[in-house]
Amino acid sequence: VTMYANDTASNKVNKTVSFTVDTVNPEVTVNTPVNGTTFTSSSAAINVTANDSLSNVSSVIAKIGSVRNVTLSFDGEYYTGNTGTLSNGNYEITIIATDLAGNVNLGENVSISIAVPSSSSRSSGNHYSSDLSEGITSSVIKNAISDSDVVYGNSIDGDYAEELRENLYNAEGYEIDRNTIIVGGPNANVLAEKYDSEFGVSITNDYPGENRGVIQIQNIQVHVGNFIKTYQVIYIAGSDRYGTQAALEYFKTLDELPSEPITVKWTANGPVLVE
């Protein structure tokens, strides 16, 4: 739009401004989970492509049935997250994408089923791995540790990992074939280096920063022969040793597995949540 003005002395000036009219909803594609998938773990990874050619996407939220809403993180290409812990049953996941003009697409949804096999540890709620460390009170966290291999990289991270359970695995030569907890970042743990890009937050020496660590969960698909199996992987790592320690100590205090990455920092008083 160009505007013109002139005065009685015949002085003239003009100004041109541009703007965009956007009444189009963002385009959304749900990459994972695939509609109709049944998971034998208690959570599912979410990966969404969302685009808006006119005013850009401002937020993408996954509505997990009537359980919770999860704000997905943008990694530069995809919007990713995790459903968080779900009970056995059927769930509809609705993706709500909003652009900067306020247009909303909430028409993309998939249905999944959670069917975690029963076991004595789950049915009784009292039987956990005998090597489980003391000081963990949540049955959800106890089950998660009991049902997982704990994998560390260097000796320092190994000492931290022993705060979860006694029986540990070194990352060298380890291949994921069950639920796994990775302790330590890519510089110290080759398993973390292999799978770091699968998570919403990539761990580097600079991010999340000095004395800071992140707790995050992702379902990782692994090829086993002619089959693709999905395992829950909990990633506990920091930019330095204190960041990893903060994340691990904070993980022990949780009541539920987080549906989104949690960032914490190590202080003189122990781990503190970073808002």
From TrEMBL:
Matching InterPro entries: Ig-like_fold, S_layer_C
Residue ranges of domain S-layer protein outer in the record: 176-249
Domain of life where this protein originates: Archaea
Protein name: S-layer protein outer domain-containing protein
